[in-house]
Write a structure and sequence with these properties.
four-stranded antiparallel beta sheet; 28% helix; alpha+beta
Length: 238
């Protein structure tokens, strides 16, 4: 399905990491995967394999949904499809996940709830996988659970044009967090260094604005959503 000579490689910037703090560069580790891919001329093959894996998952999911549509549960069941983390294929000279940038943290979430959602509607607000549980509690009319940290997405399902105050939070390692709303991404590492990206004008996150004084207010606005405490790191598996 994906001939190598028709593969489109990601658009990258060779000096993309020049304005990234040391801890961000360490996460990217361009001297490992990216250097190996380039030296062994495997970039197109890597993208080809990734596209093939997506197509296989998509086809398999189609079989599940066809069976679901033919069942007696079609009209009274909420279906939520979500993916794991995103994946870098060379963007920011990085591969895999293990980072706080867009490619590693942006994933798939689709929700179909009879009587609630409208076909082909789309919401551009940033949400979290943590929101799935409270959303199901809300949709199913169950008693609220105050210990859940996520937020019900029911209002956005009813009206995808609504604005959401709460941004999405992603963590990678102890003390390293990213805050993402519809227009901005703010990253703070545990050593206090920062990144700030304007997604309206810089969707590929090429220009780190964190050091520009005119954006201090935006950093303060987003930083208030950083967690006040971090969960302790799990001990290594023996």
């Amino acid at each position: 399905m994906y001939p190598l000579d028709q593969i489109t490689l990601p658009t990258i910037k060779e000096d993309d990491l020049d304005d990234v703090p040391r801890m961000g560069v360490k996460m990217a580790n361009p001297q490992r995967d990216h250097r190996n891919v380039i030296e062994h001329d495997q970039w197109r093959q890597a993208v080809q394999g990734y596209l093939a894996s997506i197509s296989f998952a998509d086809a398999t999911l189609g079989k599940v949904l066809e069976a679901f549509d033919a069942s007696t549960h079609k009209d009274n069941t909420t279906v939520i499809l979500w993916s794991d983390h995103g994946w870098h294929l060379g963007e920011k000279l990085h591969w895999r996940k293990f980072a706080l940038w867009e490619e590693a943290t942006h994933n798939v979430m689709m929700i179909n709830s009879p009587g609630l959602t409208k076909p082909r509607s789309r919401c551009d607000q940033a949400v979290e996988l943590m929101d799935i549980h409270p959303t199901l509690v809300d949709i199913c009319g169950l008693a609220p659970r105050n210990e859940l940290e996520g937020t019900s997405l029911r209002s956005l399902l009813e009206n995808p044009a609504l604005e959401r105050e709460c941004p999405a939070l992603t963590s990678q390692g102890l003390g390293n967090h990213a805050i993402r709303n519809e227009k901005w991404r703010y990253i703070r590492y545990r050593d206090g260094t920062e990144e700030l990206y304007d997604h309206e004008n810089d969707p590929l996150e090429w220009t780190n604005l964190a050091g520009e004084p005119q954006h201090d207010g935006k950093k303060i606005e987003l930083a208030r959503w950083l967690p006040k405490t971090d969960a302790p790191e799990s001990p290594p598996v023996q």
